[in-house]
Amino acid sequence: MKFIVSSSYLLKQLQVLGSVINSNNTLPILDNFLFELNNNELTVSASDLDSYLLKQLQVLGSVINSNNTLPILDNFLFELNNNELTVSASDLETTMSATLSIDSTSKGSVAVPAKLLLEILKTFPEQPLTFTVEDNNTVEISSNSGKYALAYAAGEEFPKAVSLEDPSVTLVPAEVLATAVSKTIFAAGNDDLRPVMSGVFFQFSPEGLIFVATDAHKLVKYARTDVKASQVADFIMPKKPLNILKSILGTSDAEVKIEYNDSNATFSFDNYILMCRLIDGKYPNYEAVIPKENPNKLMIDRSLFLSSVKRVAIFSNKTTHQIRLKIAGAELNVSAEDIDYSNKAEERLTCDYQGDDLQIGFNSRFLTEMLTNLQSDMIMLEMSLPNRAGILTPVDGLEEGETVTMLVMPVMLNS
Questions:
Q1: Using the 8-state DSSP alphabet, how is residue 397 labeled?
Q2: What distance in Å separates the CA atoms of residue 85 and residue 68, rounded to the nearest whole number?
Q3: CA distances (Å), 314 to each of 321, 330, 373, 411, in order?
Q4: For the residues of 92-160, what is the DSSP string, one character each?
Q5: What phi and psi values does residue 33 have, to the nearest 5 degrees?
Q6: What is the rounded distance in angstroms from the CA atom of residue 168 to the CA atom of residue 232?
Q7: Distance from first CA to last CA of the chain, Å, rounded?
Q8: Which of 68, 48, 50 has its CA nearest to residue 113?
Q9: Which residues contact 57 (CB under 8 A, 6 or more apart)?
Q10: Nearest Cα residue to 28 out of 82, 101, 80
Q11: Dihedral (CA of 170, 258, 174, 285) sign
Q12: Strands (DSSP E) along 206-247, which ranges?
C-alpha cells in the first residue's frame, strides 16, 4: 500500500482526530489512528471505549419498557467471552443484542441495571472504563476519577432469546429497509382491537419486496423491484422493533439478513441482532381498496402544497381537521372553516390539472403526514369522485425499481 498526501493537510486532520484518543487506553489498539485507503480516498479514524459502549447501550435501551412486569427485564445482560462482549436487552416480545470487541480474558454473564448504567455512562468524559464482577454481587466500574458499584443479578435469570427453527432468509440492503420503514410506519394504526393494522406488512417474492401500512384512514404501499426474495412469504412486523431499526439503519451500509418463520423474525447486520415476535393474523387485502380508475389528476409542487395545507389547517375544525380542495382548470383552492368559532382560511395555488372540476374534503393531518414523508419536488394527486380515496404519488426523486403509493380517504364536506 502506498499513498501521497500533503503533510500540512494530514497534520491538521490528525490533530482534530487526536483529541478523541485518551492518554491511558486499556485497549492498546485505541492508541492508534485507523487508516483506510479506497482508491483515491483515505479515511482516518480514532475511537475511545466509553462513548463506544454508551452508544451501543443507548440503542439497546430503547428495547426496555418503563413498566416491566418481570424485574429482570430492567437489566442489560452482559455475556463475556474473552475479547467479545455481547450485551442484550429484552421486553419478551423484542430482544436485541450487540457484540462489542473489548480487552478481557474472562468468561461469564451478569444482568446489570440498565437505567443506572446509562445514567453513569452519560456523565463520564471520554475515557476507558474497567468493569469488574465482585464476589458480593456487585459490578465495580473503575474510571480515571473513581469507582462505582452496581448490584447485579445472575445472567441465568435473563430470558433466553427464541431460536428460529427452519427460517426463510432474505437479504435487504440497510438503506432500502430504512427507507421502507420510514415511508410506511407512520401510516400504521394504534387500535388494539385490530392488531394486524398496528404493524407493517412485509410481502416478499421473487418479483420484489412490498411494504404496506394502513389504519383504515390512510394507506402507504412501498415497493422495490430491484431487491428480490428467493421465495414468496409475508408477515406483519410490530412498530416497536421497526422504530428501533429505523433509528440505526440510516448509518449502516451493510446488508440486513432477515430470517423469519410463522411467529418470529430476526434482523442481523453489523454487530446487531434484533429478534421480535410477529403480529399474528391475516392482513387485509390492501389492493382491493386502492382505486384503479382515477381520471382526475392534479400535479403540484409538494413544498408549496404542504405549506398551504399547514397554514389553512390552523383554521379548520379541531375535531374533524377538515380542509376542502376545490379544483378548476389550473387553479387549486385550499380552504377550511371552523363554524363554531367563525374562523376560516382560503388560499389559491397554481397547478397542472387534468379532469373534471372537483371539490373533495380531506383530513389535513393525514395529508400533512403524507406530504411530509415524501421527498419529491412534485407530487401527483389522483382522484375519481368526492367519496372515493385520493392517491398520492411522487412524480420525481425515486430510484430505479422504487415506487411509493399513498392513499388517503376523503371526509364528507359540509354543505
A1: -
A2: 25
A3: 9, 25, 20, 17
A4: SSEEEEEEEE-----EEEEEEEHHHHHHHHHHPPS---EEEE-TTSEEEEE-SS-EEEEE-EEGGGSPP
A5: -90, 145
A6: 10
A7: 76
A8: 68
A9: 76, 87, 114, 117, 118, 121
A10: 101
A11: positive
A12: 208-214, 218-224, 233-238
How many whole angstroms separate alpha carbon 361 and alpha carbon 274? 42
Rounded to the nearest 10 degrees, how much is the dihedral formed by the CA atoms of 101, 106, 109, 112? -70
Within 8 A by CB and 6+ apart from 46, the residues are 17, 18, 20, 21, 33, 34
Residue 185 has a CB neighbour count (10 Å cut-off) of 20
SS3 at position 232 = coil
From residue 206, alpha-carbon distances to 3, 45, 177, 185, 229 in Å are 44, 40, 17, 24, 5
Strands in 296-301's sheet, in edge-to-edge order, are 233-238, 199-205, 208-214, 218-224, 402-408, 390-394, 378-383, 296-301, 352-354
Cell of 16: 482534530
Quick one: which H or E segment has residue 344? strand 343-350
Q: pLDDT by residue for the chain (415 residues), tens digit each?
A: 444 554 555 565 556 555 556 655 545 565 665 555 455 444 444 444 567 788 899 999 999 999 998 999 999 999 999 888 999 999 999 999 999 888 888 888 999 999 999 999 998 888 888 889 988 999 999 888 899 999 999 999 999 988 898 899 999 999 999 999 999 999 999 988 899 999 999 999 999 999 999 999 999 999 999 999 999 999 999 999 999 999 999 888 899 999 999 999 999 999 999 999 999 999 999 999 999 999 999 999 999 999 999 999 999 999 999 999 999 999 999 999 999 899 999 999 999 999 999 999 999 999 999 999 999 999 999 999 999 999 999 999 999 999 999 999 999 887 6
Pairing of strands 84-90, 34-38: unpaired
Amino acid, single-letter form, for residue 76: F
The β-bridge partners of 355 are none
Taking the model in full, what pTM does it have?
0.85
Q: What is the largest CA-CA distance in the chain?
A: 81
Other CB atoms within 10 A of residue 192 CB: 7
* Grid cell at residue 392: 398520492
Alpha-carbon span 26 to 102, nearest angstrom: 9
